[in-house]
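RECORD TYPE: inverse folding
INPUT: structure tokens
STRUCTURE:
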């Protein structure tokens, strides 16, 4: 993983640590930290100002495909081929909770703006909405006919958008 200067294109830092393909990355709201997920099953938090690894999160049993950071910078989520979503405390490095998605590899994750909900995209053609505090699956959106690769919240949190291998983009109304 590398941090590049946008204007010059020059490399600022090379983040070394993962031992396999880095497949998911997220940038903190303040731009000071990066989070990465890898096929080596680890999630790592990096300091963008020094290039140093701040924390390593272990616990996935298969490749990590996606990561996301909460807007307040206190929590992270990760998911991948082990069909689980892990919610992490960035300060302690501990798992807060784990959400199970049996038979549905997780390939896209986002926090809602207020951090209360998590949206997940799955290879099993579904999108799920989770309660970040309880880990409960609040709603499952079905309609895609092939793998769903990514998902995002609208700025007001009232809608989700998802993109799929079925060559469609769908907009979903988030239930109250």
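DESIGNED SEQUENCE:
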């Amino acid at each position: 993983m590398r941090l590049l200067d946008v204007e010059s294109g020059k490399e600022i830092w090379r983040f070394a640590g993962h031992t396999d393909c880095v497949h998911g990355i997220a940038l903190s709201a303040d731009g000071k930290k990066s989070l990465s997920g890898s096929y080596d099953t680890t999630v790592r938090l990096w300091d963008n100002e020094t290039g140093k690894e701040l924390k390593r999160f272990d616990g996935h049993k298969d490749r990590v495909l996606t990561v996301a950071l909460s807007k307040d910078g206190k929590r992270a989520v990760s998911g991948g081929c082990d069909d689980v979503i892990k919610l992490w405390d960035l300060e302690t490095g501990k798992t807060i909770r784990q959400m199970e998605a049996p038979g549905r590899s997780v390939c896209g994750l986002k926090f809602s703006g207020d951090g209360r909900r998590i949206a997940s995209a799955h290879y099993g053609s579904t999108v799920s909405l989770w309660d970040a505090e309880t880990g409960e699956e609040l709603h499952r959106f079905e309609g895609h006919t092939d793998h769903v690769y990514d998902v995002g919240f609208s700025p007001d949190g009232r809608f989700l958008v998802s993109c799929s291998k079925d060559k469609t983009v769908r907009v979903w109304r988030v239930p109250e």
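NOTES: The mean pLDDT is 95.
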